[in-house]
UniProtKB/TrEMBL annotation:
Keywords: Carbohydrate metabolism, Glycoprotein, Golgi apparatus, Membrane, Signal-anchor, Transferase, Transmembrane, Transmembrane helix
Source taxon at top rank: Eukaryota
Cross-referenced InterPro entries: Carb_sulfotrans_8-10 (IPR018011), Sulfotransferase (IPR005331)
Transmembrane helix found in the keyword field: yes
Membrane topology: Single-pass type II membrane protein
Main location: Golgi
Molecular function as annotated in GO: chondroitin 4-sulfotransferase activity; dermatan 4-sulfotransferase activity
Subcellular localization, as worded in the UniProt entry: Golgi apparatus membrane
Enzymatic class: transferase
Family per record: Belongs to the sulfotransferase 2 family.
GO cellular component: Golgi membrane
Protein's GO biological process: carbohydrate biosynthetic process; chondroitin sulfate proteoglycan biosynthetic process
Full protein name: Carbohydrate sulfotransferase
Length: 190
Protein backbone atom coordinates (compact mmCIF):
# COMPACT_ATOMS: atom_id res chain seq x y z
CA UNK A 1 0.00 0.00 0.00
CA UNK A 2 2.66 2.52 1.00
CA UNK A 3 4.67 1.64 -2.12
CA UNK A 4 1.79 2.72 -4.33
CA UNK A 5 1.41 6.00 -2.38
CA UNK A 6 5.15 6.53 -2.61
CA UNK A 7 5.10 5.97 -6.38
CA UNK A 8 2.19 8.38 -6.78
CA UNK A 9 4.04 11.04 -4.79
CA UNK A 10 7.21 10.56 -6.82
CA UNK A 11 5.21 10.76 -10.05
CA UNK A 12 3.40 13.91 -8.88
CA UNK A 13 6.69 15.51 -7.82
CA UNK A 14 8.29 14.61 -11.15
CA UNK A 15 5.36 16.08 -13.10
CA UNK A 16 5.41 19.28 -11.05
CA UNK A 17 9.18 19.56 -11.46
CA UNK A 18 8.92 19.05 -15.21
CA UNK A 19 6.18 21.67 -15.46
CA UNK A 20 8.20 24.19 -13.46
CA UNK A 21 11.29 23.46 -15.54
CA UNK A 22 9.28 23.95 -18.73
CA UNK A 23 7.84 27.24 -17.47
CA UNK A 24 11.27 28.53 -16.48
CA UNK A 25 13.28 27.27 -19.45
CA UNK A 26 10.85 27.54 -22.37
CA UNK A 27 10.90 31.34 -22.82
CA UNK A 28 14.71 31.40 -22.79
CA UNK A 29 15.02 28.64 -25.36
CA UNK A 30 12.31 30.01 -27.65
CA UNK A 31 13.24 33.69 -27.72
CA UNK A 32 16.15 33.41 -30.26
CA UNK A 33 13.78 31.74 -32.75
CA UNK A 34 11.60 34.84 -32.73
CA UNK A 35 14.19 37.34 -33.89
CA UNK A 36 15.73 38.46 -30.60
CA UNK A 37 12.44 39.77 -29.23
CA UNK A 38 10.50 38.58 -26.22
CA UNK A 39 8.28 35.58 -26.80
CA UNK A 40 5.09 37.57 -26.22
CA UNK A 41 5.60 40.18 -28.93
CA UNK A 42 6.24 37.72 -31.77
CA UNK A 43 3.97 35.04 -30.47
CA UNK A 44 0.97 37.37 -30.52
CA UNK A 45 1.94 38.93 -33.82
CA UNK A 46 3.26 42.46 -33.54
CA UNK A 47 3.41 44.56 -30.44
CA UNK A 48 0.16 43.38 -28.84
CA UNK A 49 1.79 42.42 -25.56
CA UNK A 50 0.20 42.49 -22.16
CA UNK A 51 1.64 44.81 -19.51
CA UNK A 52 3.13 41.78 -17.75
CA UNK A 53 4.90 40.66 -20.92
CA UNK A 54 6.34 44.14 -21.35
CA UNK A 55 7.38 44.30 -17.71
CA UNK A 56 9.12 40.92 -17.73
CA UNK A 57 10.66 41.23 -21.18
CA UNK A 58 13.56 38.77 -21.39
CA UNK A 59 15.58 41.12 -23.59
CA UNK A 60 15.13 44.09 -21.29
CA UNK A 61 17.92 46.63 -21.52
CA UNK A 62 20.44 45.62 -18.84
CA UNK A 63 21.18 49.31 -18.19
CA UNK A 64 17.66 49.93 -16.92
CA UNK A 65 17.77 50.80 -13.29
CA UNK A 66 16.12 48.94 -10.48
CA UNK A 67 14.14 52.07 -9.65
CA UNK A 68 12.63 52.08 -13.15
CA UNK A 69 11.61 48.42 -12.84
CA UNK A 70 9.94 49.15 -9.50
CA UNK A 71 8.19 52.21 -10.96
CA UNK A 72 6.82 50.09 -13.81
CA UNK A 73 5.61 47.46 -11.35
CA UNK A 74 3.88 50.09 -9.20
CA UNK A 75 2.21 51.57 -12.29
CA UNK A 76 1.05 48.12 -13.41
CA UNK A 77 -0.32 47.36 -9.96
CA UNK A 78 -2.06 50.72 -9.75
CA UNK A 79 -3.71 50.37 -13.16
CA UNK A 80 -4.88 46.81 -12.43
CA UNK A 81 -6.30 47.83 -9.06
CA UNK A 82 -8.12 50.82 -10.53
CA UNK A 83 -9.76 48.59 -13.17
CA UNK A 84 -10.92 45.94 -10.71
CA UNK A 85 -12.02 47.84 -7.61
CA UNK A 86 -14.80 50.21 -6.82
CA UNK A 87 -13.48 53.65 -5.92
CA UNK A 88 -15.71 54.47 -2.94
CA UNK A 89 -15.75 51.03 -1.34
CA UNK A 90 -15.50 51.20 2.45
CA UNK A 91 -13.16 48.80 4.18
CA UNK A 92 -14.90 46.03 6.07
CA UNK A 93 -13.48 44.30 9.18
CA UNK A 94 -12.70 41.15 7.18
CA UNK A 95 -10.51 43.29 4.88
CA UNK A 96 -8.34 44.20 7.87
CA UNK A 97 -7.81 40.77 9.45
CA UNK A 98 -4.49 40.31 7.64
CA UNK A 99 -3.07 43.61 8.87
CA UNK A 100 -1.21 43.12 12.16
CA UNK A 101 -0.51 46.04 14.48
CA UNK A 102 2.59 46.82 16.57
CA UNK A 103 1.68 49.97 18.52
CA UNK A 104 5.00 50.17 20.34
CA UNK A 105 6.95 50.54 17.09
CA UNK A 106 4.27 52.12 14.90
CA UNK A 107 4.10 49.23 12.42
CA UNK A 108 1.31 47.75 10.32
CA UNK A 109 2.22 44.43 8.69
CA UNK A 110 -0.10 43.08 5.99
CA UNK A 111 0.77 39.40 5.87
CA UNK A 112 0.42 37.23 2.78
CA UNK A 113 0.42 33.46 3.38
CA UNK A 114 3.49 31.65 2.01
CA UNK A 115 5.49 34.89 1.84
CA UNK A 116 7.55 34.62 5.06
CA UNK A 117 4.52 35.50 7.19
CA UNK A 118 5.45 32.98 9.90
CA UNK A 119 8.87 34.54 10.33
CA UNK A 120 7.49 38.07 10.38
CA UNK A 121 4.89 37.07 12.96
CA UNK A 122 7.73 35.65 15.06
CA UNK A 123 9.62 38.94 14.74
CA UNK A 124 6.54 40.94 15.78
CA UNK A 125 6.01 38.63 18.77
CA UNK A 126 9.62 39.21 19.81
CA UNK A 127 9.32 42.98 19.31
CA UNK A 128 6.18 43.08 21.43
CA UNK A 129 7.98 41.28 24.27
CA UNK A 130 5.72 38.22 24.20
CA UNK A 131 8.69 35.86 23.83
CA UNK A 132 12.24 35.69 25.07
CA UNK A 133 15.26 34.63 23.12
CA UNK A 134 15.56 33.78 19.46
CA UNK A 135 12.38 34.45 17.39
CA UNK A 136 13.25 31.44 15.22
CA UNK A 137 12.63 29.21 18.26
CA UNK A 138 8.92 30.13 18.29
CA UNK A 139 6.94 27.22 16.83
CA UNK A 140 4.84 28.04 13.77
CA UNK A 141 1.58 27.09 15.50
CA UNK A 142 2.32 29.66 18.23
CA UNK A 143 3.12 32.37 15.70
CA UNK A 144 -0.19 31.74 13.93
CA UNK A 145 -2.29 31.37 17.09
CA UNK A 146 -5.32 33.69 16.96
CA UNK A 147 -5.16 36.63 19.31
CA UNK A 148 -1.38 36.64 19.82
CA UNK A 149 -0.99 39.76 17.69
CA UNK A 150 -3.71 42.39 17.33
CA UNK A 151 -5.14 42.92 13.86
CA UNK A 152 -6.35 46.24 12.53
CA UNK A 153 -9.91 44.85 12.57
CA UNK A 154 -9.81 44.82 16.40
CA UNK A 155 -9.94 48.63 16.60
CA UNK A 156 -12.63 51.28 16.18
CA UNK A 157 -12.87 53.13 12.83
CA UNK A 158 -11.28 56.25 14.34
CA UNK A 159 -8.35 54.21 15.72
CA UNK A 160 -7.98 52.37 12.40
CA UNK A 161 -7.76 55.66 10.49
CA UNK A 162 -5.27 57.10 12.99
CA UNK A 163 -3.00 54.06 12.64
CA UNK A 164 -3.28 54.02 8.84
CA UNK A 165 -2.18 57.66 8.68
CA UNK A 166 0.59 57.52 11.28
CA UNK A 167 2.15 54.03 11.17
CA UNK A 168 4.57 52.50 8.71
CA UNK A 169 2.64 49.90 6.69
CA UNK A 170 4.52 47.16 4.86
CA UNK A 171 4.02 43.84 3.12
CA UNK A 172 6.14 41.38 1.21
CA UNK A 173 5.33 39.68 -2.07
CA UNK A 174 6.81 36.68 -3.80
CA UNK A 175 7.13 35.47 -7.37
CA UNK A 176 3.91 33.45 -7.95
CA UNK A 177 5.48 30.21 -9.20
CA UNK A 178 7.99 30.22 -6.36
CA UNK A 179 5.11 30.69 -3.91
CA UNK A 180 3.22 27.80 -5.52
CA UNK A 181 6.26 25.52 -5.33
CA UNK A 182 6.78 26.45 -1.68
CA UNK A 183 3.15 25.69 -0.84
CA UNK A 184 3.49 22.32 -2.59
CA UNK A 185 6.66 21.48 -0.64
CA UNK A 186 5.14 22.51 2.70
CA UNK A 187 1.66 21.04 2.31
CA UNK A 188 1.85 18.10 -0.09
CA UNK A 189 5.42 16.80 -0.28
CA UNK A 190 5.72 16.02 3.44
Amino acid sequence: MWRRCWRQRVLAAACLGAALLLLCAAPRTLSPVFGNRALGSSWLGGERRSPLQKLYDLDQDPRSTLAEVHRQRRDLLSSACSRHTRRQRLLQPEDLRHVLVDDAHGLLYCYVPKVACTNWKRVLLALSGQTRGDPRAIPAHEAHAPGRLPSLADFSPAEINRRLRAYLAFLFVREPFERLASAYRNKLAR
